Amino acid sequence: MAMKLKLIAVGNSTGVILPKELLEKLRVQKGDELHALETPDGVRLSQFDKEFDRQLDVAERVMREDRDVLRKLAE
Fold this sequence. Notes:
By secondary structure, the protein is α+β, with helices and mostly antiparallel strands. The protein has 3 helices and 4 strands. The strands form 2 sheets. Strands 1-2 form a two-stranded antiparallel ribbon. A two-stranded antiparallel sheet has the order 3-4.
């Protein structure tokens, strides 16, 4: 499903208008938070999940702190 989304000015920032159909598919409503995840295919939007966000933070920290060890394991 492809949708055209419109960007609008929101103070000094930029917002995006999400159509009702997309909000229903994401199971979100006005005031909810979304999680944007960069993937090789683009950006994936999903409901914000506190536990998933915490896990991503931990994974990023481990990858940053143990970069050399992870590189060796990948060989």
